[in-house]
């Protein structure tokens, strides 16, 4: 019988955390799924672990390939998938038991949505909840700066992926999911549930740590392509400025803060002409980015406080009173320390 969900996991030398990742899928309260695992040329004990689980549970189907990268592995899983929905799993994360059940229920009730995920909580050296927007308009705007989903929480409507001819691009090395979200956002609505569905493990061997430079270069390429849809072909300094606003690492000078402000206004004005993005949603995302940018420059003291609030971008930042108070105190403390 055809399962409702086809979940694919690509794994390369993942023996350390693999058992917990597999068990978290097998222990889902929603049980109507197939579990496609692609062993991407592992040389450690991964193969033995996969063989053991394949014998224990008929829903598990293990496939082997030479080391080709995660995008190739996930695309193979997508080709093999039979379910109505397609999901992915990382070999070092842990899904909470109702991950499938909760997102499945939402997707069944909202047939226009093509991809839905949720929040995750990090485990490892640091512990915090990574929250994502829930509405389509904001998610599309967020993609201008960063990803819109926690990949091991999503369900994707496979029919929509096939119809739009969507797959993971191997050229987007180490951020193939980000590239897929951007392409998908042009074809159908996106959504997230406002609750934690997965525990995301942070450790020194994960891609974001060991392959950070390659990942950031690929992600930058994806962002530049989105700027082109606004009619913007940024200069090299502008492209670097956009990245600085994203990662909040930059020279803290008044001139650079003004450059960042002008760049965000440029994005807003460009969209007003072509209406690629919902204007209110984009204003909110740009307002938040302006706040984060200024919050990283509080060492400039009261000047930063005034500059932030004098900008029209601040009106759409949607800040809590706690955010405002913390920002004010930091600017004031930094200012007093100069005397």
From TrEMBL:
Keyword terms of this UniProt record: Glycosyltransferase, Transferase
Annotated TM spans: none
Entry-linked Pfam families: Glycos_transf_2
Domain called Glycosyltransferase 2-like: residue spans: 6-126
tRNA-binding among keywords: no
Similarity section: Belongs to the glycosyltransferase 2 family.
Official protein name in the record: Glycosyltransferase family 2 protein
Lineage: Bacteria, Bacillati, Cyanobacteriota, Cyanophyceae, Coleofasciculales
